[in-house]
Amino acid sequence: MTQDDFSLDVDVDKKDAKDGKGDSAAVHAASHPASGRVDVHPLVLLSLVDHFARVNSKSTTKKRVAGLLLGGYQKLASGLQVLDINNCFAVPFDEDVKSPDVWFLDWNYAEEMFRMYKKVLPKISVVGWYSSGPTICANDMNLHLLIANRFCANPVYCVVNTDATKKATPVLAYTTIAGRDGAAVEFRNVPTNLGALEAEEIGIEHLLRDLTDSTVTTLSTQVLDRQLSLQRLEQMLTTLQQYLLDVADGRLPMCLDILEIVQEIVNLRPRLHQLKASKEMVMWTNDSALSTFVAAASRCVMALYDVILNRRRLSRELKESKERREEELLKAKKDEAEKKAKDEAAKAKTEAEKKP
C-alpha cells in the first residue's frame, strides 16, 4: 500500500508517551471531528513554493520545509464541513535525514507569528501545517501531535508537490483517525480541492499571462500526457491490487464502499478476450458521448449567438460613426460658409469706407 492513497501507521513519540502528553494529544486529535473536504487557495501554494525556493536556492541537496496553515471551517448547505485554507506562514525547520528522531521546529517563532497574524485578522486560526514532502516522513506524526497539542485539536497535514518535473497532484491533505494494530493514531487522506476567490483568479491570470498557452498542444506534449496518465493508472492499479491482497490475507478490514467501487470498475472494463466491449461500458460510453455532443452543440450555438451580437454591434457602431462623420462635415461646411460670408461683408465694408 502507498502512503498517499490509504494510510500510514505510526506510533506516538516515546518521550511524550512517558509524560502522558502523547496519548492525550493522540486521543484528542483522533476523537475530534474532521472536515469532509479541504479547500486550498493558490496563495498558500505560491507562498509554500516561494519558501521552498528561498531555502534551497544555494544548497545542492533539497531540504524539506514546513510551516503553519491558517483558515477556518465552513459548513455547506448540504451539511458537508469544509476546511478553507486561505493563508500560511513559514516556520524555521530542520531535520536529520539519516536519523528521523532528530528534528527541530522553532515553536517560539511560530507562536509569535501567529500572534501578529491574530492582531490583523482576529477571526483566523491555525488549522494545520504543511511540508514540501514529497511524501509523509517518519517524524511527521510527532510534529502533527505537537501541533495538535499547541494550536488546534485536529490539524490537517498538507503535503505539497514542489517538483515541477513531476506532473502529479499538487497537494494532498491528511488528518488523523484512531489507529489499527496497536497504533495510537494514523494518517488518513482527505479529499482536497483548489479554491480561489475572484481577486486570486485575476492575480493568477496575470502571473500566467507570459507563460505558454496550455490550450495549444503539440504531438510531444500529447504523448507525454498519455505516458503520465498511463503511469498514474499503473500506480493506482498496483495500489488497488495490494489493498485487495491485504484484505484477503486479513491484514486490513474489508470496506464495502471500496469493494463497491472496485466492482463498478470491473463491470466497466472492456472484454478484450471477446474483442468487444461490455454492455455496461457501452452504456457508459454512450452517456459520455451524448453529454459531450450536447456540450459541443451548446458551445456552437453560444458561439453563433456571440457572432450575431458582434455583427449587430459592429453595424450599429459603423452606422453611428458614419452619421457622426456626416454631421461633422455639415457643421464644417456651415462654419466655412459663415466665415466666408463674414469675410465678404468685412471686405465690402472696408471698400465702402475707402470711397470718398
One letter per element, helices H and strands E, the order comes to: EHHEHEEEEHEHEEEEHHHH
The amount of beta strand, in percent, is: 15-25%
- Sheet with the most strands, sense and barrel status: 9 strands, mixed
CATH class of the largest domain: Alpha Beta
Structural class: alpha/beta
The strand count comes to: 11
Low-confidence stretches: 1-33
Silhouette: elongated
The pLDDT mean sits at 79
Q: Kindly identify the CATH topology of the largest domain.
A: Cytidine Deaminase, domain 2
What would you say the CATH architecture of the largest domain is?
Answer: 3-Layer(aba) Sandwich
> Helical stretch count?
9
Oligomer: single chain
Give an overview in words:
With 356 residues, the chain is an alpha/beta fold. It has 2 domains: 7-211, Cytidine Deaminase, domain 2 (3-Layer(aba) Sandwich); 295-356. The chain is 52% helix and 18% strand. Strands 1-10-9-8-7-3-4-2-11 form a 9-stranded mixed β-sheet. Strands 5-6 form a two-stranded antiparallel ribbon. It is elongated, with a radius of gyration of 33 Å. The chain starts with 6 loop residues before the first strand and ends with a helix. Mean pLDDT is 79; it is low at 1-33. Pfam families: JAB, MitMem_reg. It comes from Bodo saltans. Residues 320-356 are annotated as: Disordered. This is Proteasome regulatory non-ATPase subunit, putative.
